[in-house]
Amino acid sequence: MPMPSAPIHRPRPLPARKLVLTALAGASLAGTIAGCAPSAANAGQAGGAGSQLTTTPTTAAASGGTSGSSGSHAYHDGTFSADGHYSSPNGPETVGVTLTLKSGVVTDVQITEHPTSANTRLFQKHFASGIKDVVVGKKLDDLNVSIVAGSSLTGQGFNDAVSIIKNEAS
């Protein structure tokens, strides 16, 4: 007497709804990643995938309250705050920056997040978590941030705020 064979199990095709949802999730993820990539305008500043900071010295080293060579800035010691503005795929964004300076050198940095969406909140939070390692100990005149902790657009707002802070601290 022949033995009955085990039933053959064939995988069922995914329902159309599941296929559509999977495709939408993939497209959403791709859009999110593309929105964080450096734009063509600042792609040259990124310095590669592992780059955290691009510095562009604009003047001679800052001196701590004494007049140095022609073109150097003497910044006041203290804590200075400004909001920086930038554009994201979600529209206009703002990030708050507070820098503490001593002899023209950043001794502390704080970021105040002003997100307009969950996506912006995520990138501003990542930026805030990595910025201290990038700027503390650097001269104010040498700051020009590009990508920090995977956030490329928030750096534009940071740089905008630094420009304002330079004027306030002069």
Verbal overview:
This protein has 170 residues and is an alpha+beta fold. Helices cover 35% and strands 19% of the residues. It contains four helices and three strands; from the N terminus they run H-H-E-E-E-H-H. A three-stranded antiparallel sheet has the order 1-2-3. Residues 27-71 have low confidence and may be disordered.
Tell me the layout of helices and strands.
Elements: H1 16-36, H2 43-46, E1 78-88, E2 91-102, E3 105-114, H3 118-135, H4 154-169
Antiparallel strand pairs: 1-2, 2-3
List keywords for this structure.
elongated; 35% helix; single chain; 170 residues; 4 helices; alpha+beta; three-stranded antiparallel β-sheet
Main pleated-sheet profile: 3 strands, antiparallel
Unreliable segments (pLDDT under 50, ≥5 consecutive)?
Answer: 27-71
Q: Which descriptor suits the 3D outline?
A: elongated
| Beta-strand proportion | 15-25%
Number of discrete helical segments: 4
- Helices and strands: which structural class? alpha+beta
Integer average pLDDT: 73
Helix-strand pattern, N to C? HHEEEHH
How many β-strands, per DSSP? 3
Helix content: 25-40%
Distance between the termini: 99 Å
Radius of gyration: 24 Å
Strand order of the largest sheet: 1-2-3
